[in-house]
Amino acid sequence: MSMNVEPLRKILELERDKGYVDSAVIGGLDKFLRRWAGQAIESITNPQLLNHFHRLRLVDSNYASLTKQQRKDWVNEVLAFLSEAEQVEAGKGEVKPPKESVVPPVASRRSLGRQKVVAPQSINSPITALKGVSTNLATKFNRLGVKTIRDLLYFFPHRHLDYSQRKYISQLTEGEEQTIVANVWQANETMLGGRRSTEAIVGDETGNVRVVWFNNPYLAKKLPTNTRVVLSGRVGLFGGRHVFESPEWELLEDGELIHTGRLVPLYPLTQGLRPRQVRKLMKQVIDQWAWQVEDFLPPEVRQRCNLFELPQAIAQAHYPQDEAAKGGARLRLAFGELFLLQLGVLGRKRDWQESQPGTPFTVSTPVLDTFLRSLPFELTAAQRKVLGELLADLAKPRPMSRLLQGEVGSGKTVVATAALLVAAASGYQGAFMAPTEILAEQHFTNVCEFLSRTGHQLAGEDNLCSYSGLLSHPLTVALLIGDLSQVRKQEIQQRIMSGDIDIIIGTHALIQKEVEFRCLGLAVVDEQHRFGVSQRSALRQKGFNPHVLVMTATPIPRTLALTLYGDLDLSVIDQLPPGRQVVKTKWLKPSQRDSAYAFVRRQVGEGRQAFIICPLVEESEAIEAKAAVAEYERLSREVFPELRLGLIHGRMSAVEKDEVMHRFRSGELGILVSTPVVEVGIDVPNATVMLVESADRFGLSQLHQFRGRVGRGREQSYCMLLSQTPSEIGRERLDLIEKIHDGFQLAEEDLRLRGPGEFFGTRQSGLPDLRMAKLSDVALLELARSEAIRLFEQDPGLEKPEHHLLARELARVWQHGEAEWS
Ligand code: ADP
Ligand code: MG
User: Fold this and answer.
1) Which of 82, 186, 603, 696 could form a disulfide with 608 if both were Cys (CB 3.0 to 4.6 A apart)?
2) Is the CB of 408 within 6 Å of ligand 1?
3) Which class for 397: exposed (0-12), middle (13-18), buried (19 or more C-beta within 10 A)?
């Protein structure tokens, strides 16, 4: 838009010709000028020109009251201005952005230090001890988990708005976040969209701009004419003109900027906390308190890793000087969190391994060889490697503490069986624990199956088998589960206590009080995510310090594994036995539901079996069970009236579930309708179809687990995924699961899509809070781990004076959520 020069020039020339009697326009020149200037100003982009414009006071001219001579001079000056404007607009350069920043430097550490501390509070005082924090305000903060001054210092913004980009008004562009420093010409209360609001006109040397604050009439009074304000926010377009829409604002004379003109923190808010109020309080607290935080990182570590000191990091995390400082702060704080985390998990491992001596096994090669030779298959290279790692651990006087990860079907059970055999050959007992009774039975069947190929079966009962020819004594395996009669249970417990039973298979109930082992040497725990540290400790409290092998089919990316299970060594079976088929996976449109059912019908007709997973119901297990019953009835009556269907849901008793599982496994049922509970490792080789309803609602790892229920036998297997209207992320998941068949790769994708909290369930992990650290930050995690290992080597008990602060911080951070940690 260019300035409309011509009409004014004509009028002024006419005025000159008439002898400066203010007769050129009806109503007088002043009135005309005001209207003209009001429009012209918005089109002036050149700073000199704008200066000139302001100097002439065209907006509030007072021509009528001038003397004739004054009128003559003034008219000439305005005419000159108009010529100048024409020239400028005919093609003069752009206006350069301002060189110096309006942002005064953030208080340096020294200036922080100079602040006087008047109050006698400590950093652990409740926030009500702070000036300006009422109990009412404190309650609101409490809801966010902020109770003490320290909590407040660690109450980090979830992000910053970059308001550091100062612009001249003439440079404002639509849609971007920008900052201007301007003069208030006028600010009034006004009605906008039927609500009392504030409207202002502000200007700098390059132009004026309208500013509106919707629904906020009180602001008008805080912005008197001629005050200097800093405005940060988005600029919109209204009637072809730029308008600042509800920008953050503050008066320049207030001193250090906290809402505008810089990287401005955005805090997580709860109802009743106002952003400006929180920012103001935070600034005050940081200035007064941040420098009093003691840095727990040993200076040596800090220097070696080139990290900020803690007070500086805290201050810069809230009010960073610039992006680089913000990055430095995050790095330092994240490192601190990961370092404490690693010290915690490594300390735990040390306790586990060194508080009580373990039991070194003498690995009997002939027994092991006989066992391996008798298997109907060769171990895969990955299985051999992992077995080697286990055997090396088992021979050591330090108890093994190892996590074995392997895809569904990768053959973990046979490796575990070999380890249990080694324990028995060394004269120790082994326990094999599963999360459910069904799985315990399955393990019992599998272990017995493997052993029966090697040894001669002496006794074969429902829950007890004995083999000769392997060890110097009969090798005895027992299954201990809830359904046994009380008498039978006591008998087995008796035999466990006497040492007569070598391998005991059961649920986690095995480690409950009534089971006493004679000499427990190895505990194998299947499905880690249901077996926490407290259970492991319970084992130890039975007076044993057994080797522990934890197995999981949930692939966990290495970074997460190091964090969540940092106290365990890691083994991975990253290879499936040869000849395993890929489960054909297809995401189906709702319109293909009938053909999906037809496919199920055909497969079952050919003697195969199918799983149908009901939709996830998050509200409650009871509602989920009800929905599953309804779906089961619908499928039985309307879709597959000619087939036999079974139903499993979380509200059924263990006995009922077992019964249905048995009927399915024996082939009596063709279709098993289930709530998502069957996710856990059921092995039904004849099942070839997995149909998942509302598949988009499940995580990738979970879908992969479902898919792993089929494809366990020789027949080609299929996974069909139904979803009504998947969200964008749901669609992405379905695309990925169709394409990717590798569990680890899927886990990485899952982690990327969902973030670690959801991926693993933060509640369950019970880890100390990670506020700054991201588990996806592999390099930093590895650095923190190697520094933690290094520190433990120098000072295992953290007893050196330079580590006292660290020991205290470690205790503080790890005091919560211990029990559930696993
Ligand atoms: P996981 O517990 O890891 O899911 P399993 O131990 O149940 O897997 O093994 C799945 C199936 O593969 C079992 O039937 C097992 O006998 C078989 N299996 C294990 N290792 C091999 C191998 N090296 N070659 C062929 N089949 C194997
Ligand atoms: Mg298994």
Assistant:
1) 603
2) yes
3) exposed
